[in-house]
Amino acid sequence: MVPSGWKLEFVENIFNVQLGKMLNKAAKEQFPQFQYLGNTNVKWGYFELSDLKSMFFNEREREKFTLLNGDILMCEGGEVGRCAIWNIGQKEIFFQKALHRLRSKGSIIPEYFQNYMIFIAGTKLLDDSTTRTSIAHLTREKLLKLPIKVPPLHEQQKIAQILSTWDKAISTTESLITNSQQQKKSLMQQLLTGKKRFVGFKEKWEITKLSQVAIIIMGSSPKSANYNETGIGLPLIQGNADIKYRKSCPRIFTSQITKECFIGDILLSVRAPVGTVAISKHNACIGRGISSIKAKNGYSHEFLYQWLLYFEPKWERLSQGSTFEAVNSHDIKSLHINIPSSQNEQQKIASILTTADQEIETLQQKLSHLKQEKKALMQQLLTGKRRVIVDKETEAA
Fold this sequence. Notes:
This protein has helices at 11-14, 25-29, 59-64, 110-120, 124-127, 140-144, 153-191, 210-213, 301-311, 329-333, 343-381, 392-396; strands spanning 7-10, 15-19, 33-37, 53-56, 72-75, 83-85, 94-95, 99-104, 131-132, 136-137, 147-150, 205-209, 214-218, 227-228, 234-237, 243-244, 247-248, 252-254, 259-261, 266-269, 277-279, 284-286, 290-295, 336-340. The protein is of the alpha+beta class. The protein has a five-stranded mixed β-sheet with strand order 14-18-15-22-19, with no helix packed on it. A four-stranded antiparallel β-sheet has the order 2-8-5-6. It has a four-stranded antiparallel β-sheet with strand order 13-23-20-21. Helix 7 packs antiparallel against helix 11 (343-381) and helix 9 (301-311) packs across helix 11. The longest helix is centred in the middle third of the chain and has 39 residues, at 153-191. 30% of the residues are buried.
C-alpha cells in the first residue's frame, strides 16, 4: 500500500542507469590508463579508494563512464545492491562493469534512495530482483524494474536528514571503538612485555612455559549420537562456532561428557582459526576444537586471559607450511610466556586491561543499540507508517 501523497515508481522512471565498462585484455594494455572503481571499492555508504586499479578508456568512454557528484554506484554482483553516493568532486575516475551508476532524473534524492537500498538489503523484495546462477547478480533489466515508494522531495529530504543524524552517531561511536581498541593494543604492548612498570614493583619477570602457570585441558568430542536440543547433559562447546563476542555460546547439548570446562575458564580455539580466546559462561563439555585454561595457584587468571589475547594474532608463527589448521597439546603447553613473578603486579596489569575491555564493550553495546534503533526508524519512515513533519518554508522551497 502506498501512503497518501507518495508514488510507487520504478528505478527506470527516476534514474538514468549505466553499467560500467567491461575489463578486457586490450583495456589492460592500451594507454593512457585511468583509475576505475570496482565492486570491492564500493561499501555501504562510502568508497574504499586505497587500492584502485587502472585500464584504458577512450574519449567517448570517459564521457560515458565518468562520475558526477550525487551519482550512486551500486554493486551488480556479490553483495547485490550495496551502494554509495559519489561526493568526492571532480576526481578523474571511472567505473567497471561490476557496478551500476544511477543518476537521478530529479524526482528522488540520492540520500533517500541509498537508505532505501540499505532498508531492503537481504529482503524478499531485493531477492526477487536478483538473478541467481553461481553468484547473485542484479542485472540492469532487473534493476530498472525495481519498485520504490517515493515521497515528495521535501519529505525525502527530511527523512534523509533524520537518518543522517543516526548515521553520524553510529560513525562517531565506531570511531570511538576503533580508538579505544588501538589504545588497548598499545597498553598491552607496554604492560604485557614489561616495557612499562607500575611504581612499587621491582621484581624480575620470568619466562616460563604456559603449562607451568596454568592447567590446560584439551577437548575431546563426544559421539554425535549423544547430541540433543532438550538440555540433557551439558552444553557442548565444539569450536569457534560456539563462541560469540569472546563468550561461550553453545548451540547444542551432549549426554556424553568427555572433557569439561567451568564458568570463568579461558577457552582457546585449537582448530582454524587457531588462537581465538574467550571466557566460558557455562559449565560445559568441550570438543576437540577447544582447550580450556585455568591459572594455577599463585598466578592471576585475568593476567593469563589478557596475555593470551595479546598473543592471539601470533599463533601463525607456529604454522608448519602454508596452511595452518590446528595446534596440539604440546604446542600449547610449551608456549613461552613472559610473566611478572609478583602476583600483585599480574593483577594490577590485568585490572588496567580489563577496564579497557569494559569501556570497549560499553561502546559496542551502544553501537548495537544505535543500529537497532536506526533500523526500527527506517522501518517506520521508509514505508510511510510514520510521517515526518515538514515546515512550510522547506515545503515551499
